[in-house]
Structure formats: structure tokens, C-alpha cells
Design brief:
The complex is a heterodimer.
Chain A (H helix, E strand, L loop, with lengths): L12 H10 L4 E5 L3 H9 L22 E5 L7 H10 L5 E5 H6 L20 E3 L6 H18 L5 H5 L7 E4 L2 E7 L18 H4 L3
Parallel strand pairs in A: 1-2, 2-3, 3-4
Antiparallel strand pairs in A: 5-6
Chain B lengths: L3 H10 L4 E5 L2 E5 L5 H12 L3 E9 L10 E8 L6 E8 L5 E3 L8 H12 L2 E3 L42
The chains are: A alpha/beta, B alpha/beta.
Chain lengths: 205, 165
């Protein structure tokens, strides 16, 4: 093999595509509460989300890569959120921003969904009530690392990804008791954690 | 607060109304059968022509309460800003009141909200559907015998996985 000139770089196509994707995340803002204010602050000049290539907020799901769910989601809103998620094209990612989107937060009531990850896939969780813009930026940096690490040019990892079976059901006699629902995938039958996410499952396939 | 003339007129026309005052706010408790007549009288003859709110209180488990639901109408005077609270009581089963949408178009959504949250029917309402909760919701969640965390409605949503999208 002959020596390459200095102005030629060899890389894998996957790495190149991942580098492009991670630096042009276009967010779909799904802001329903005060986290949305912090999301706007993140986009404004002081924190400047454009430093990470994610400044192009599109309000059309067809043009977005990254859904940022900022705020509590009620049961009536959940089908809307799922519909928007399904309208987004692969490759796509989801950030659950704030305590309410991640767990329901203080709103442990009949109408508020106790964590959006029960019903749609989530890649990165951001704690805080509401999180500081720096935390959201850190989430985007972490997501960029994840994209660079596990993405492929063909997107085959997207079709292979599995949502950990977290369909939880409440015991109607005791609403505080939340138990794991029926297993969604055959692989979880032998799961001693009762269908919950185990460490081996969280690692990228 | 209501002016003395308003209270006097109400007392003369409806002697069964129990008028009381609490911190400057005047309240009249009337039987459910005449609540429409009282509101019509206040609107057309007294001038309290603005419906400010219709809401409800569930007195289940409340100490010394005789009735289950107290429905509260707040009416106001558009020019003098005086206010009056009209309260009436209804009970299970099937608590029902006459609608006031014939007096105020704006009472339409207010009564729908009371129906949605407390399950009180308004006879003659043109469109008594749920207003806030999904249409297939079955309970009336602001009733005191409804558990705060619901009966599992918030978890009965299909799960979207990576496979689907």
C-alpha cells in the first residue's frame, strides 16, 4: 500500500455519518410547562444551543431529529406526543427534560403520566425542576457521544433498538402499587427483574 | 359584596333564601328548585347580569354536612362591580339542576366543567359533554370518593416502541 498524502483522511463511513448527524440535531420542542422556558433560554444567545449545532428548532416533526419533551404530559396529551414521535423520521432521539417528563414530578395525580418513558422511547433524561440550560446542554453533549458511539450510516441500529419493556400497570385497588406489565418481548421472559430494565439491556446493541 | 338594596330585593322576592355574610362577601343559599328563578331575578330585575363562575363543592366526609354537593353560582354587576354568591345543594343519586344557559350563553362551558369534574347534570343544557377530560373517561375526578391517583387511567395508554417508528 502506497503512502497516503497528508491531505487525505481515512475513516469509517459510519463515523463520518455519525459526526454529521450529531452536529446537526434539529430539535422538536414539545414544551408544556416551565421546562419550556429553560428550553427557550437554552436556545437564546446567553447559552446558545447553536454551539452544538442544535439551534434549528422546527415545529414540524417531519424535519426534526431530536424530540425534547419539556414539562409534564397528561394522559390526554400522550396520544398527541406519540403521534408526533411517530411522524418523526429515523434516525431520531428523545430527551426527557425535567422531573415531570421523566417521572411525573410532584404531579402524582390521576391525569399526569408518571414518566413519558413508559409510553415512548427516551435516550437521555435530564433531572431538575426545571433543569438549568447547562444541564440540557450536557444532555445534548451526552447524546452526541451516544450517536457517535453507536450510530451507523444505514441506520440499522435504529431498527434493532429495543425499548426495554416498561409498560407499567397500576393495581386498580391500590393505585400506589405499580407493577410491571406483561412482557413486550420474548427475551424478557427469563428476566429476573420482572420485565424491568437491566444493565445488560441498556448497553447499545 | 352586594349592596343593601340588592339584598333587600332578594329577601322580599325569595323569603326562603338564607342570606349570610363572610368577610364582606354575601351569599344566599337557596333550594335547588328555585335556583333558576333566583338567578333570572338577579339578572333581569336587579342587574347582576354577569355570570362570573359556576363551580361545585363536594361535601362528602365533611363534618356535619347534610348534603353531598354544593353548586355555587357567582354573579356580578357589570357597572357597579357588586357581587353575589348563590349556592344550592344537590344529592346522589344523579344530582341534577336546571341549566342557566338560557340566561347566559357563557354558562355553557362552565356547566360542562362542573359536569366533567363532579358529574352534576344540567337539565336542558344544549351540549353536555366533557370539556377537559378525554371523552372516554368514566369517572368524575373531583369527587371526594375518587382516588387522587386515579383508577389506572394514566397508565392505560398504548406503548410506542422503537419498532413502530
Amino acid at each position: 500500500m502506497t503512502d497516503l498524502p497528508d491531505n487525505v483522511v481515512i475513516t469509517k463511513l459510519d463515523a463520518l455519518v455519525n459526526w454529521c448527524r450529531k452536529n446537526s440535531l434539529w430539535p422538536m420542542p414539545f414544551a408544556t410547562a416551565c421546562c419550556g422556558i429553560e428550553l427557550m433560554a437554552t436556545g437564546a444567545s446567553r447559552h446558545d444551543i447553536a454551539r452544538f449545532g442544535a439551534e434549528v428548532f422546527r415545529f414540524s416533526p417531519r424535519q426534526c431529529d431530536l424530540m425534547i419533551v419539556a414539562g409534564r404530559v397528561v394522559m390526554k396529551m400522550m396520544p398527541v406526543l406519540q403521534r408526533i414521535w411517530l411522524q418523526m423520521h429515523e434516525p431520531k432521539w428523545c430527551i426527557s427534560m425535567g422531573a415531570c417528563a421523566s417521572t411525573g414530578g410532584v404531579f402524582d395525580t390521576y391525569a399526569v403520566v408518571q414518566g413519558i418513558d413508559r409510553f415512548i422511547p427516551v435516550d437521555v433524561y435530564v433531572p431538575g425542576c426545571p433543569p438549568r440550560p447547562e444541564q440540557l446542554l450536557q444532555a445534548i453533549i451526552d447524546l452526541q457521544e451516544k450517536i457517535q458511539r453507536e450510530g451507523t450510516a444505514s441506520g440499522r441500529e435504529a431498527s434493532r433498538r429495543r425499548q426495554p419493556p416498561r409498560a407499567l400497570v397500576e393495581d386498580p385497588r391500590n393505585p400506589r402499587l405499580v407493577v410491571a406489565g406483561p412482557p413486550l418481548f420474548a427475551s424478557s421472559e427469563n428476566d429476573p427483574a420482572g420485565g424491568r430494565m437491566s444493565d445488560s439491556e441498556t448497553s447499545a446493541t | 359584596m352586594a349592596s343593601p338594596e340588592t339584598l333587600q330585593k332578594l329577601k322580599e322576592r325569595f323569603p326562603e333564601a338564607e342570606i349570610s355574610e363572610f368577610r364582606g362577601q354575601h351569599r344566599a343559599v337557596v333550594p335547588a328548585g328555585i335556583v333558576h328563578d333566583v338567578l333570572k331575578f338577579l339578572k333581569e330585575d336587579v342587574g347582576l347580569a354577569l355570570i362570573i363562575d359556576i363551580t361545585c363543592v363536594d361535601y362528602l366526609y365533611y363534618p356535619n354536612a347534610k348534603d353531598r354537593f354544593g353548586v355555587v353560582y357567582i354573579v356580578g354587576h357589570p357597572e357597579t362591580a357588586e357581587r353575589m354568591i348563590i349556592k344550592t345543594f344537590v344529592n346522589d343519586p344523579a344530582p341534577t339542576l336546571p341549566t342557566v344557559t338560557d340566561l347566559w350563553e357563557g354558562a355553557n362551558w362552565l356547566e360542562r366543567e362542573v359536569w366533567d369534574m363532579f358529574g352534576i347534570r344540567f337539565e336542558g343544557h344544549p351540549d353536555l359533554r366533557r370539556i377537559l377530560l378525554p371523552e372516554d373517561f368514566e369517572d368524575h375526578p373531583l369527587r371526594k370518593d375518587y382516588p387522587l391517583q386515579g383508577r389506572g387511567e394514566r397508565h392505560n395508554i398504548p406503548v410506542v416502541t422503537r419498532d413502530l417508528g
